[in-house]
Specification:
This protein is α/β, with parallel strands linked by helices. It has helices at about 15-25, 45-55, 75-80, 105-115, 175-180, 210-215, 215-220, and strands spanning about 5-10, 30-40, 60-65, 85-90, 95, 120-125, 135, 140-145, 150-155, 185-195, 195, 230, 235. Helix content is about 25%, strand content about 25%. The protein has a nine-stranded mixed sheet, with helices on both faces. A two-stranded antiparallel sheet has the order 5-11. The protein is globular, with a radius of gyration of 17 Å.
Length: about 240
């Protein structure tokens, strides 16, 4: 099974470079495709993304000529997958995958195969209250919502018939989770698979001009901080995990 991974790129070229590199380092070759969706980057970053395509490091590249910044339709990734695809993964360019054996993607596919009730599953990322944990199991934690943190989506569970996002409106990950749950699916994060959000830094890695392009980022508070036990697996200290 080849799993498509869709990564959104908006500025922060250095983060994108690291994310692409670590994805290739942390997943078995031939088991995934990496697709980049660029929605309004600077010219030099777009040139870099094109070079990734030329070098075969990504399978496809979407350059949004409307230059809408981070304003885009979250349903686009569902529509870019083939109908027979069972799963696909969505991630932002500031989230890094863990180094595991077996790799994190094959482990998450196994969890999705095991938990047929799941519409979406993501690695664990402190602080967990942002996902609103509901019920703790041996290997997963049911929750209300997931962000774009290497979440694996069961394609048939995506609420494409009810997700009426206006073109150009901010994507609402909570809305997708809610509509999945309304249709009887559950969403969860992993107990023993973690990821790292390097966007948790001063001004989230954006310049003042870039922040001005996205009014949401100007209202973000101080980045969250927590202690990491293992910088390969990104496992946090026990007090920061569920």
């Amino acid at each position: 099974m080849i799993i498509p991974i869709f990564m959104t790129s908006w500025h922060r070229k250095e983060m994108t470079e690291r994310a692409v590199r670590e994805i290739h380092e942390c997943i078995a070759p031939g088991t995934f495709e990496l697709h980049l969706y660029d929605n309004g980057n600077s010219a030099d970053t777009r040139d870099y993304l094109v070079s990734l395509l030329d070098e075969g490091k990504i399978t496809s590249l979407v350059l949004d000529s409307r230059n809408t910044g981070c304003l885009y339709n979250k349903g686009v990734f569902h529509m870019m997958t083939e109908e027979h695809s069972e799963y696909y993964v969505v991630n932002d360019n500031d989230v890094m995958p863990p180094k595991l054996s077996p790799d994190w993607l094959s482990q998450m596919v196994a969890l999705m195969d095991k938990h047929k009730e799941l519409g979406m599953l993501a690695p664990q990322l402190p602080p967990q209250f942002l996902q609103t944990p509901l019920e703790v199991k041996d290997d997963i934690v049911y929750c209300l919502a997931l962000g774009n943190t290497f979440k694996i989506i069961r394609r048939i569970a995506f609420p494409i018939d009810s997700f009426k996002q206006r073109l150009g409106a901010y994507g609402d990950d909570g809305l997708v989770s809610q509509q999945m749950r309304e249709k009887g699916w559950k969403v969860a994060f992993c107990r023993n698979i973690f990821c790292l959000h390097i966007g948790q830094c001063k001004d989230w890695g954006y310049t003042p001009d870039q922040i001005a392009q996205d009014p949401r980022k100007s209202g973000y508070g101080k980045p969250f901080e927590y202690e990491i036990k293992n910088m390969d697996t990104y496992e946090p200290e026990d007090k920061h995990r569920m």
